[in-house]
Amino acid sequence: MKRAYLDTVALVERLHRHFLEVVKSEIERLRVRDINNVQALILYNIGEDDLTVGELTQRGYYLGSNVSYNLKQLIECGYIAQERSPHDRRSVRIKLSERGLELQRKLDAVFDGHARLAANTLGSNDFAAVCETLRRLERFWDGQRSGSTAAA
Fold it and tell me: Does residue 54 have a pLDDT over 90?
């Protein structure tokens, strides 16, 4: 059982790295050279939302711990617009600029194509089963962080 657990953890990590490489290839194919794959995923996940950096972090729309650096790059490259809250000057709201929305739409079309190809190869029921299993693993890990030892 331990071996299967550790193999699963390693596979999740490996799949994540593979996906980042796929995103890197796709943004290169789209001739996007001013941001990296992680930044492209942040941009994609923000979509049409208008949110604070805290909300971005809570939703898990970033990868890694350096969200401030990645946001700074996206702002400097013109993909994200930021605005200070009129009610709380410490709070900054972010949203995609027109340039960011354009790239987000292109990435959405790319991911639509990927999803169709993957469903033809694996089947939508397989994806549903994998997602449910990974959600249960996520709940288990959330319980471990909070000190619970109950099974998911």
Answer: no
